Amino acid sequence: MALVTINGQTLEVPDGTNVVEAAALAGVDIPHYCYHPGLPIDGNCRMCLVEVEGARGPQIACNTLLRTTRNKEGDEVPAAVVKTETDAVRQMRQGVMEFLLLNHPIDCPVCDQAGECGLQDYYMEHGKHDHRSVVPKVEKVKAQPIGPNVILDQERCILCSRCVRFTREVTKTHELVIAGRGDKSRIEVFPGTELDNDYATNVVDLCPVGALTSRDFRFKKRVWFLKTASSICTGCSRGCNVHLDHDGGKAYRYRPRANEAVNRWWMCDRGRFTYKAINEGRQRDAKVGGQVVPFAKATQELRQLLGSGKVGFVVGAHASLEDMAVVKWLSAALGARAWGLDWSEQGKEDDFLMKADLTPNRQGFALIGLDSDETSFREALPGLTALVTVAVALPSGLVHARTAALVTHAAAAPESAAVVLPIAMHAERHAAYANVDGIIQHVEPAFEPAGDALPASALLALQGAGMGYPLPFDREGVWKRLDAERGVTA
Ligand code: SF4
Ligand code: SF4
Ligand code: FES
Questions:
Q1: What is d(CA 488, CA 321) in angstroms, rounded to the nearest whole number?
Q2: How far apart are alpha carbons 448 and 182 in whole angstroms?
Q3: Ligand 1 proximity of 163 Cβ (cutoff 6 Å)
Q4: What is the distance between the alpha carbons of residues 374 and 340, in angstroms, rounded to a whole number?
């Protein structure tokens, strides 16, 4: 561990920590553009300049690395004594801002980055200078598609090189380069290529300004109208952590949320655009015999099926751990059988994040103790008096004549289903999922469920209660019982 003193406050940090990170631990914000914890340090923007006692001139905080330091007597002393709020530092920041904005277009009113732009934010905090240049601004290429998902505006770029380092060091696909010299320097796509790799849109999140924007999201919504929920991508079994940005009951985008143990700072484009499934194709109404009916009428029918004798449950790997647990408990109370099965198609897998299993919670079957033997399900199916499916689409040959389908999307309900009930997606409820490595991850609700939907766990627990089998129906109750029974903790 290394000692460091920042603005008079001394703290201990792991060896190798840089001063930007150490300052953050001390609650001190050092402005920075080019530094990013997921990329090699480049030290080009100079925005993080600070004063370090004993150093010759100002130092860039991002490349000032702290190591255990001892004096002659062998006592540990601060590796650096840093000042971030002196007049000199303030003047340097203002100078850097003036330089970075020298050729920057007056684009803010028509820029999709407005509201989450590093230039706007730091100008207000550290700039507020008057523009002194009397020569015309250098013009460069604007609004140029550089791949299926990203648009480049060269004029807005501050040449921090984050995007270049991402394609060089993370994806190793090398599509982006800085071409030209001096004020003609600009980001370009390497001749003959386009920015089209499985992780390409991460450069939009990385870009601190409006130079790289998402073709999917741009001009859909001003960001200050968006609210954000902590969620996960349910596009595959990796379970990348995401910010789910939403407004008015509609999901607008996923952005990766840093989690060293799961996805670090990134997510794949395949998963990034799965947010659309939250808005589209949803089952909103309850149905009996193919007709839309009041919700209570459909739950009444469901209870009849549940009381029909030899009932089977199939819960899919898009269901949450809570759903699986309540299915298990309700089936045990009814003397029914429950399987954890999923026939979702497989997808591309790589050695970074993407997994072939396109479901978020297949590990949950074993954690909850559900039978995943498809053969035993096929054998038992003809003898069942009713089948209840939860968050799973059955292959056409396996649909039972008396099926109650609890579905998030209309396409997942068999046409012949006796009862269809809408259930909530991960964006609409508290839920937990076990990823490919068995890491249990919780999501928080962004907005209310679509239409009449309820979380499947609550819907089934309420049916159980109505039949004389009280079951936990809220998050706390479910996790208390899971912990007590299976040692599975939240
Ligand atoms: S496009 Fe954005 S991320 Fe890339 S160098 Fe320019 S400012 Fe940095
Ligand atoms: S790797 Fe999987 S979980 Fe991560 S973003 Fe892609 S699809 Fe989603
Ligand atoms: S963040 Fe340190 S030089 Fe850019």
A1: 10
A2: 52
A3: yes
A4: 9
Whether the CB of 206 sits within 6 Å of ligand 3 = no
In the block, which residue shows the tokens 């001892």? 70
Percent of the chain residues topping a pLDDT of 90: 97
> Any residues with CB less than 8 A from the CB of 134 and at least 6 apart, and which?
none
Measure the CA–CA gap between 141 and 51, rounded to whole angstroms.
Answer: 37
Q: What is the pLDDT of residues 312-365, one digit of tens each?
A: 999 999 999 999 999 999 999 999 999 999 999 999 999 999 999 999 999 999
In this predicted structure, the answer to whether residue 431 has a pLDDT above a threshold of 90 is yes
CB atoms within 10 A of CB 223: 17
* Residue written as token pair 């509609």: 250
> What's the whole-model pTM score?
0.95
Pocket flag, ligand 1, residue 209 (CB < 6 Å): yes
Cα of 35 to ligand 3 centre, how many Å?
A: 5
Architecture of domain 132-279: 2-Layer Sandwich (3.30)
Is pLDDT of 376 > 90? yes
pLDDT for position 486: 78
Please state which architecture CATH assigns to domain 2-98. Roll (3.10)
Task: Report residue 370 as tokens.
Answer: 């559900």
Q: Which CATH class is domain 286-486?
A: alpha beta
How far is it, in rounded angstroms, from Cα 286 to Cα 35?
Answer: 51
Does 143 have pLDDT greater than 90?
yes
Domain with CATH 3.30.70.20 in the chain: 132-279
Mean pLDDT for the stretch of residues 132-142: 95
Per-residue confidence (pLDDT) for residue 400, from 0 to 100: 86
Taking the centre of ligand 2 as the mean of its atom positions, its distance from the CA of residue 277, in whole angstroms, is 14
